[in-house]
Amino acid sequence: MRFYLSLFFLGASFLGFSQECNHVLLGEVIDFHEKTPLAGARVSITGKNRFTTTNESGKFKFDGLCNGVLELEISHPECTTAFMTLTMDGDHFERIFLEHHLEELDEVKVTGRANPKKTNSSQEEVLSKLTMEQFSGASLGDALKSIPGVSSLNTGANIVKPIIQGLSGSRILMLNNNVRMQDMEWGDEHAPNIDVNANQRVSVIKGAAALEYGGDAIGGVIILESATLANKDTLFGRTQLNAFTNGRGGNITTRLTRTYDNGIFLNGQGSFKYLGDMEAPEYILSNTGVQEMGFSFNAGKRAFIQGWEAYYSYFNADIGILRASHIGNVDDLIQSINNRVPNFIEPFTYTINRPNQDVTHHLGKASYYRRFEGLGKWEVQYDFQQNRRLEYDVRVGADAEKASLDLRLTTHTLSSTFKVDAYEKVDLKVGALGRYQNNFANPDTGVRRLIPDYDKYEVGIFSVSEYQWKDGLVLDAGLRYDFTRMDAKKFYRTSRWEERGYDVDFPDIILENLGTQLLTNPVFNYHNVSFSAGLRKEWGNDQLFRFNYSLSNRAPNPSELFSDGLHHSAARIELGDLRLQSESASKVSASLEKTGSNWGYTLSPYVNHISNFMLLEPSQVEFTIRGAFPVWSYRQTTALFLGVDAAIYKHWLPRLRTDHSVSYVHGTDVDLDIPLINMPAPHFQNSISYNNPGWENFNISLTSQYVLEQTRFPENIFVFSPIQEQEVELDINTPPEAYHLLSLDSQMVFDIVHPQDLTVGLRITNLLNTTYRDYLNRQRFFVDDLARNISVRLIYNY
Amino acid sequence: MKKRTMNPTMKGMAYLFSGLFAIGTFVSCDNDDDNPEPVNEEEVITTMNVTLTAAGTTVTLRSFDDDGDGPNAPEVTVSGDLAANTTYAGSIELLNETESPAEDITEEVAEEDEEHQFFFTTGGAISSVTYTDQDGGGNPVGLSFDLTTGDAGSGTLLITLRHEPKKPNDGSLADAGGETDIAQSFTITVE
Questions:
Q1: Among A522, A629, A512, A528, residue whose Cα is nearest residue A575
Q2: CA distance, residue B146 to nearest chain A CA (Å)
Q3: What is the ipTM of this complex?
Q4: A51, A78, A100: which is the final residue of a domain?
Q5: B89 contacts chain A (CB < 8 A)
Q6: Of A107, A505, A562, B132, which has the most beta carbons under 10 Å away?
C-alpha cells in the first residue's frame, strides 16, 4: 500500500538566529478527506533515532532540534510509510495531510480489500493473472469464459463475442481504459476489437448496476484496465511468447513501463499474432487463419491532488472466415447441414483468402483529474474512436478485390464526473457525458449498404451513491438518464419499403424517390431512465451477501433498426425494423459468497425480465432469381431469463485443490411461450490442481468441461427447396449434442536474474481430440469445432 | 513557503458545471446535410429468358426478379406446354432490366464463358439436357443446349448459373462449386 502526502505550510515561523539545538517541531497529522486527526501515526526523524506517535488529536512534538533540513518518516497502521523533508529555521509547526483512501491508486479502500470492486452489490468477478496469461494467445472472449455465467457466441475460433448470463452484443458494455468501446458490437460476427494483452486487469459485472458507465448494459459490463503503477523511479518490462500447434503459429506481446517518483509514467505495449488455418480433429478448417496486431501507449502523471493521462491504442485484425461457410442459397445451406462434412477442404496455409474481415480500431483519450480537499475528486475525459470494418466475400470478376462491406464508425465522447468522498459513511458520484457518432458506409463496394450512414447523438447524466449503514452493511443506489438521437440516411428498395408497411407508417421521411429505391431520413429519439439499488453485507472474515435490483433501458442499435439485405457469407437476408422501441430490463440478482482459506463458494441466482426484448431469428424464406434465402428478422417480445451461476472450491490437502462450477440459464419468449434462440446450454466445469512452491513454483491443473445439449430452442422453419422440389425442414435451430472436453495446464516459475522472473507454461486444450460442435458457434452448420491444441508459453519479467 | 487556499465546494461545482457546459456545447454541433449516393449494384441479373424451339413451335420459360434480394419473388412464366418425346433446341438470354434500355448480360457470359457454366437438373417428364456449346477450353457453357422430353406428364427443369466454377467438372453442382448467379426451377407440362 502506498500513499500520498500533501503538505500545506500554514504555520507560524518563529524567527530565531540561535545556533543552539533547542528548537521545537510541532506537527499535526490529518486525514485529507475527512479533515479529522489521525491518531497512532508513527513519526520518526530519519538518521536521528528519534520517534514518536501522534496522540488522540493527531498531534506530535519533537524538541531539542537544530536548524537545518530534516527528513520525516510517517507511518500509519493502515498505510505504508511515507517520507517528507522540511527545513528547520527556529521552531516549526507542520500540518501533514495523509490520504488513506488511496482510491486513486486503485489499491485500497479503507477496508484494505485486495481487489476493489466496481460496484457494491452486483455480481462481479475479476480474471486472475494466471487466466490472463493462459489466454494471452487467444481472444478476450475465450479468457472471459473462465468466469461462471460467461459464455460466448462464436463465428469460428477467432471471432468470439462474450455472452453474460445469456445476453450479448449491444447488451454488453466494454470499457477499455475507461473508454466505452464503439466497435460495431451490433453484429453477431463482430468480435470486440480489443487485444487481450493490452490491459492487465479485466473485471466482469453481470448486469446493469454499474450505472456510471452506461444505462443500457442489460447484459453486463466488461472493464479492462491498465495495472496501477507505483510512484517510484523504475523501469520494468514483460514479454510473453506463446506457440500453438493448432494454427501452427503463435503470438508475442511485450510491455515496457517507466515510472518516476514524482508520479510521471510512460507505458508502451505491443502484440502481434500470426496463426494459419485451424484444424478440427478430422480436417483442416480452410481459411480460418488470423493475423492481429495491436499497440498502445500511455503517459501521464498521477499525484494525489491532480493528475492527467493521455492514451492511444491501435488494433488491427485480419480474420479468415471459414471458406465452407460461404454458401450460395438455401439449397447450399441444406446440403451443408445434411452433409456433416465441409464442402471445401484445402491443404493448410497461412494465407488468408476470401471471405475475411479486416478491422482496425483507433482509440485515443485524454483525461485530467483534480481533487478538492474535504470534498472529492473531479475528472474530465475526452475520447476518440474510429472503427473501420472491411468485410470481403468471395466475389468474382472485377469485384473480386472489393470489400462487400466497408463501414467507418467515428465516435467522440466528452465526459465528466465528480466524486464526493469526504464523508465517512457516504460516497456520491455524479457525472455527465455527451457523445457524437458518425457512421459512413462506403458506396464503392457495389453492394447495397447493410448499415446506413447515420449520425447519433447521446447525452447522459447519472448519480450513484453508497452509504455505509452499519458495520459491514453497505447500501447503494443509482439513477441515470440517457437521451439518444439517431439520424440516418437510408436507401430502401421500394418493394421492401412497401412490404414492411413503412409506406403507411413512415410516409413523411422520404427525401428522394429514385424509382426502384427511396432515400429516407429516419430520425428517432429515445429517452431512457435507468435505476439500480442494492446492498452488500459482509460478516465473519470471509463471507459476503449481495443483493441488487436494476432497471435498465437500451435504445435499438443500427443493426436492429436498419439491417436490410443479403448477407452473402451467411446466405441469409437480415431485416431490421424501424418500429423497434427501447428494451427495458428489470433484473434481480443475489450473490452469496464465502472465500475461506480452506474452502469457499459463490452462489449467484438471478431473474431478468426484459420487455420489448429485441431478437433476431429465422422467420421465413424469400425467393430471388438466385435461389431461396432464409430471412432473419428482428422482432420484439417479452423475455424472461432465470439462471444461476455457482462455484465451489476446496483445499483437500495444502497443495491440492479442486474447483467446481455450473452455469444455467433458462430463457423464454413469454409472449409466444417458446424458448429463446441462442441460449447457452447448461455447462459444468471441474478442475483439480496441484501446486508446489518448492519445485520452482510448479503448478498443474486438469480441467473438465461438460456442455450439455441445449434442449430448449425455437422450432426449425420449413422452406421450399428448388432442388428437392418440395418443402423441407431447414434444420437451422437444432442444437448439436452434448460434449465433454479435457484441458491440461502446467507451469513453473524460475529465478534467472531476478526472483521469479521466468515463467514456462504448457497448455493442452481438447486433450482427447474430441470431435464436437457447439450450439453457440455459428459455423456449427458446416464444420466440427477445434481439435487438440498444444501450446507453450514463456513469460519473462525484467 | 507555499500556501494554498481554496473554497473546495464552490470550486468543485464550478469545475463540474464548466465540464457540463462544455459537453452541452459539444453535442449541439450539427451534421452537414449531404445525402449519401446510391450504390451502383454491379452485374445484376433481373431476367432469364429460355427459348425452346422444335418443329417451328417455340416455348419460352421466363424468370423475372426486379428487386434482387428484395421481398418480391421472381415472376416465373412458362409460355406453353412441350410435346412428348421431342428434342428442343434451347438458348438462354440474360438481361438487366433495372437499366433502360435493358442491358444484355448474355454477351458478358459469352465473353467470359470460361468463367461461367449453366447446369440443368431435370425431373419428371423432362428426360435430359445436353450442352451444344463450348468455351475456349472445350468445356460446356450452356447458353445453348438440347432438351429432350419423355412421355407426357409433369416435368421440372432447374437451371443454375455458376460463376467461376471448377472447369472441367463432373457436371454436378457440388463438384463445380463457384458462385450461384441464378438458380431457378420451372414446372413444365409435357403432353
A1: A629
A2: 21
A3: 0.83
A4: A100
A5: no
A6: A562
